[in-house]
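Teaching assistant here, posting this on the class forum so everyone can see the example we discussed in section. The complex has two components, and the goal was to see what a joint structure prediction looks like when all of them are supplied at once.
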Amino acid sequence: MSATERHARTTAADLTAERQAGLETRQADQDRTLDAMHWLERALSSAAPGREPAWLDDVVNALGVLGTVTRDEHHNASQPDSLLSDIARTQPRLRTRVRGVRTAYQQIRDTIDFLLAELAEPGDERNIDELRRRVGWLLTALRHQRSRESDLLYEAYYEAFHRDVDDDARRQP
Amino acid sequence: MTTAPSQHYPYPDHPLQTAGQRSWTDRNTSLDALHELEAVLAEPAPNRAPRWLANVRAALDGLHAALDAQAGGDRETTSLLSEIAVDEARLVPRITRLRRQHDDLRESVRALRSELAACAEQDLVDVGDTRDRVADLARRLRHHRAQEADLIYEAVNLNLGTGD
């Protein structure tokens, strides 16, 4: 019997408390990141000309919060008991995709740090339009990454348990 | 951390209070619709593509309705942009461009809805392509919102981005 078949035969009872906790941690991390993304989005689309310093302060603060929550999310997802670690351990055919998700997430984290460092430097007048576009692309990349991870988790979970990971994540403990 | 939109219009004493509040509300409604669309788009698609597509289409309908309502409100003579156009003739070309951009966005949403309806009928779902196209749409909508916020602040000192 292949590993896939063994997983397919796993019953709902095998959804361990550890995995349920992993789902809840991931959901909480994702909610925090989404809040931070929406905050940054609002800061970016606020009026800028005539109030550039206040606009830039708001953007930097919101970007800083996004940096913090994505760092926390990345840390949690890297733990041995995280859902991604569980998938990499139990479903070898998905290991490359797990690695890809982690690498892409790290690249986004690096971009946030780079932008924050750049904005912390005293310098010339900021090009607001360009900054809006650059941060906008960062948010687009983060949304894409979230979709990719969501697909991977669902696929792995469905294959292993024949259950809907999103429904389980929303389930009240 | 509190990031939820303010439920209260932030400029109750401004001379253009009614027009400003209408614009603020319409902007919030369309942003909520965009967030809903992005949320369903980020839901997992493998093994459940028809359900995923149905959710995306429903959310796209919501965005379309919100953008239509926003355009309808904006075309009224008492709307914020209409008031600004009367008082600040120098800004009319930018207002015209904003309205054209908004119409383009509505047209893009309409075209995507039609295409996804055809995909659903033929049971052909290209998840990656749909996500890319909505991401492009969302980027354009956000850029448009920022430009509109800039113009309104410049004209009447209302930062509608603050509470939306």
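For the discussion questions: Chain B touches chain A at residues 1, 3, 5, 35, 38, 41-48, 127, 131, 135, 138-139, 142-143, 145-146, 149-150, 152-154, 159-162, 164 (CB under 8 Å). Helices of chain B lie at 17-41, 49-75, 80-87, 92-122, 127-156. Think about how each of these relates to the inputs above.
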